[in-house]
DNA sequence: GTTGATGGTGAACATTCTGTTCGGTACAGA
DNA sequence: TCTGTACCGAACAGAATGTTCACCATCAAC
């Protein structure tokens, strides 16, 4: 699964070159327009090397994303190292995006396989749904629980989108403050007064 | 520009067949995987007919979207036929999406050219930014104006996404109520008390 | 109805991109 | 030093795109 540690030094080098080439290209043009030929030209590897390492160009991005999302899960989405009232590990997510900025920026600019963004979206939405179910009696919600979960995930991602789009002018902590001010009041409004 | 009114009856027929075929296919598989051959097979038109009417398969969707977005603009985004405090014509948008459900549903399921969703997103965001600038003194905002605009557009779209995803179980009016409860409190929280 | 114009048809074609194969070379790691 | 593995590059088959063309169908106007 993770070919980062083991494997031949040459393999790692090739994979790195290819991933970097693709991320670079994605800052210039949209993903679908990029051809395998362009990738291997920029990476300066042979065609057969490319296909020895990846199934296709989608696979390049997917494997990179799988790795980064794995980190996200184990570092920020497991356990409950954040205040329960927050419902989502928003601060952790802002920090995570900042840490892996090149990948996320390329993803955004290249308008790439939307399925990745959607993967994050789903993960956040489900996480929020679970937290909400714990935080409030479902029957007491004035709005369906899964709408609230969708809203939370969507609003958080739209802040992240804005942040990336504008060259990340704020710190994760400032973004977290904005998130708390802007997004959370709506959630508290539909929860019956309870758990602060 | 708009080939719906003028043009030969046969042209209109062909275009309609092709658009419907594509929308149908998009309910089954993602846009990128769909080939022109599949479209013309399902539409039952000749290959050359397809290319006589459209530049490529993106063009099919684009022309349809351009038309529907044109309607959206003239019916819901111009003037200010909605309460100024709402900042966005959310109810109008919910109604509009319901009215053109097949297109929006296909767009969503097919994970199609994200640029269309982004087009709507941009339009909403800019609209919100303009309204915000009128509704509040920029200097008095505790959060940058364009973040709020982005948030509004993103949150509204995420509600629409949920709505489409779940087969539109609510009326536009119910969705509007949810939007008001869930999304607007955050906006009021960052506006200095003013204009109710 | 005849007629002239416009659109539709299917087959053929060049082109582009994809993904695979293979013999030979270079390098990593033990 | 030696063995396995990755890289290389060229060649290739297959798929999909978009174009062209000669022929046929349909329109609407006379």
What this model shows, in words?
- The structure is a homodimer of 196-residue chains.
- By secondary structure, the first copy, chain A, is mostly helical.
- Chain A has a domain at 58-190: Orthogonal Bundle (Tetracycline Repressor, domain 2), CATH 1.10.357.
- Chain A contains 10 helices and no strands.
- The first copy, chain A, has helices at 9-26, 36-43, 47-53, 57-77, 90-99, 101-109, 114-135, 145-165, 172-182, 184-190.
- The structure holds a DNA duplex (30 and 30 nucleotides).
Which descriptors apply to this entry?
68% helix; 196 residues; homodimer; DNA-binding; Tetracycline Repressor, domain 2; mainly alpha; elongated
Classify the helix fraction of chain A into a percent range: 55-70%
Largest beta-sheet details of chain A: none
CATH class of the domain at 58-190 in chain A: Mainly Alpha
Helix vs. strand class of chain A: mainly alpha
What's the average pLDDT of chain A? Answer: 84
| Largest binding interface between chains | A-B, 32 and 32 residues
Q: How large a portion of the residues of chain A is in β-strands, by DSSP E? A: under 5%
| Strand runs of chain A, count | 0
Detail the poorly predicted runs of chain A.
none
Spell out the helices and strands of chain A N to C: HHHHHHHHHH
Q: What CATH architecture of the domain at 58-190 in chain A would you give?
A: Orthogonal Bundle
What integer value in Å does the Rg of chain A equal? 19 Å
Topology at a glance:
The structure is a homodimer of 196-residue chains.
Chain A: H1 9-26, H2 36-43, H3 47-53, H4 57-77, H5 90-99, H6 101-109, H7 114-135, H8 145-165, H9 172-182, H10 184-190
The first copy, chain A, binds a DNA duplex (30 and 30 nucleotides) through residues 8-11, 14, 35-37, 45-52, 55-56.
């Amino acid at each position: 699964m993770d070919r980062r540690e083991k494997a031949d030094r040459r393999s790692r080098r090739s994979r790195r070159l290819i991933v970097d080439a693709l991320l670079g290209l994605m800052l210039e043009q949209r993903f679908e327009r990029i051809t395998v030929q362009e990738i291997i030209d920029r990476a300066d590897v042979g065609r057969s090397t490319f296909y020895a390492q990846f199934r296709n160009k989608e696979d390049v991005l997917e494997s990179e994303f799988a790795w980064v999302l794995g980190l996200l899960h184990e570092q920020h989405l497991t356990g409950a190292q954040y205040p329960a009232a927050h419902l989502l590990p928003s601060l952790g997510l802002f920090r995570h995006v900042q840490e892996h900025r090149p990948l996320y920026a390329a993803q955004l600019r290249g308008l790439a396989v939307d399925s990745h963004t959607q993967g994050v979206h789903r993960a956040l939405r489900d996480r929020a749904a679970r937290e909400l179910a714990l935080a409030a009696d479902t029957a007491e919600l004035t709005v369906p629980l899964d709408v609230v979960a969708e809203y939370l995930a969507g609003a958080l991602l739209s802040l992240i989108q804005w942040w990336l789009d504008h060259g990340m002018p704020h710190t994760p902590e400032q973004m977290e403050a904005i998130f708390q001010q802007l997004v959370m009041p709506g959630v508290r409004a539909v929860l019956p007064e309870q758990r602060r």
